[in-house]
Design a protein that fits this description.
mainly alpha, MetI-like fold, 78% helix
Amino acid sequence: MNGLHIGAGGRIGLGAVGLLLLLAIWQASVQFHLVPPGLLPAPTELWTAFVSEVSGGFWVQAIKDSLVHYIAGLLIGSVLGAGAGLVCASIPIVDALTGGVVRLLRPIPGLAWVPFAILWFGLNNVGATFVIAISVFWINFYAAYGAVKSVDQELYEVAAAFGHRGFLARLHYVTLPAAMPGLLAGLRTGLGQGWMSVVAAELFGVPGVGARMMQASSLLATDIVVVYMITMAGLYALTDFLFGLVRDRVLRWQG
């Protein structure tokens, strides 16, 4: 059955139409009191709230504060997660030894580590970094693990035929190049997971976007809450776009 083909321009146009419809329905729901007053701000109220946050210096400061532990947690969780996944997938003994630990710890969400972050590190950026790193770690671990396990074994045989039999040689000439798309996919997913974890990491009072959202929600300032929700979506879109440029450059040799 032939489906209707939609080009890139058409998809962008339809996406814009869908967004406008959402805003229209949202505005009408508030304006005609289809939702209880105060529970949801109208889209027309958001600009005023945004200007107020920017002029007061809260918006820029919240972003700066969040970026500190977001970047640190993202780097730590990504490097450790991808490294652990590579090692476990490449060395059967390590894989067997850590299998039970992985199955035990993997289902625990990042939010569950908040009490320990407070106990171990206190109410500071280190604790927030820890929560974000934990959340990002498992995404990169499984992405790296799966990418390495999916490498064609014949590639290792070819490498061995050319004298590359050691672990480091196999890693350099076969494993990393072949697994790179999967590794980068995990890193990209971790970018979004890191931003989603920012709110959880700031629940206990660490300054940032999530903390500002919690402060606003306690005052029922839902317009400010939505402003920061959109801010986080924008920050993720920006980081994802920049990472996409880096990924395309790294994988350029595949083209």
